[in-house]
Amino acid sequence: MVMITRSPHSAGCLSMSSGASSSIVPCPTYRRPFKPPTNTKLKGFFAGSGSDSMSNPYMARAVVDLTERSSPQDVSLLYIGTASYDIAKFRKKQTNAFIEMGCDVSFLDVANRRPDQDEMEEAVDNADIILVSGGNTLYALDRWRYLGLDQMLLSAAQRGTVMTGGSAGAICWFDSGHSDSDDPETYRLYKLDKFKDGESASEETASGGNSSSSNPFQYYSGNTQEGDSKEWSYIKVEGLGIFPGLVCPHYDRVQSNGVARMHDFDNLLQDFGRYELGIGIDHNAALEVVGDEFRVVSIPGEVGSVHDSSENSMSPGVWLKYVDESGNIQAKVCPRSGSLSDLLQEVTDAEKHILVDHRVDLSRKENPLLRD
Description:
Layout: E1 31-33, E2 43-47, H1 51-54, H2 57-65, E3 76-80, H3 88-101, E4 104-107, H4 117-125, E5 129-132, H5 137-147, H6 149-158, E6 162-166, H7 168-171, E7 174-179, H8 188-194, E8 218-219, E9 235-238, E10 243-248, E11 253-254, H9 261-272, E12 278-281, E13 285-290, E14 293-298, E15 306-308, E16 313-315, E17 318-323, E18 329-333, E19 337-339, H10 340-343, E20 345-347, H11 350-353, H12 359-366
Parallel strand pairs: 2-6, 3-4, 3-5, 5-6, 7-10, 10-12
Antiparallel strand pairs: 1-20, 2-13, 7-9, 8-11, 12-17, 13-14, 14-19, 15-16, 17-18
């Protein structure tokens, strides 16, 4: 079993009473406001979907702008597709918008091969942007830890490399996430067989979706998904811990198990995340971070879970959720912008307050890690 390391931002934290800051939601004694490092400017763009967000020119441009380069032609982007097993179709869809802008795009394949340390270090060190694909979060994190790539990604973040991705590519940068890694259709052998001849005859699953009628990420309008539902459960997966929080991507969607993610997220928070702050990111939204500032970005014209009173419509957004002292779930729409230290909260004792979902052990047995 891969050991989960303690989140670096949580080491040595002291308790802090609620009301000691201007936190957007209450900050109890077992959490404290997150203070970004002062020696570097953390930069990230964390989307609710993988392929749909990263393939969108509007979202891709927002990612590139974070580099502060004078032109996209001066930007080097590294794509890491471990979560989708380095399958070319997903790489192409999630990098095309960046290529069309003129970015220098490279990729680091580690899902099915073991590159040497020098190759991984050079690829990570040369990147202005690191784009992590959607897919099976648990497999990706375990594979990185097995190869030592996790420590390289941590170092890259600390020196100001732009961290980005959607779905699994958003979860991985945080303490933990609400993940579909238990879905058998996200398993390595299943996916490699499905795409062994290149393009699959059916539509995308688990790595980002698309706008077709067979999109596996159906918008949740208050009704459960029609038709037969598959038997699998969402699980909590531990991330790299660069940012605190339990992230739920595709927050406004329903997948093949017929369960609305926004509702299952509540259950996961109560069972395994009652000390953590939950962050729900709609399928067509993203949370952007630059130093101690954040903003919510959404794809224009798309639907989401946040009511827009000015237009009487539902727009993509981000939600904050937490378990109160009575054990009830509280929810609040995230402001469109503000101070990151007012938004994010880290637990005061990671080993005590970041609870482990032991169902991940069964998922690891069902989708074994390549150990080469």
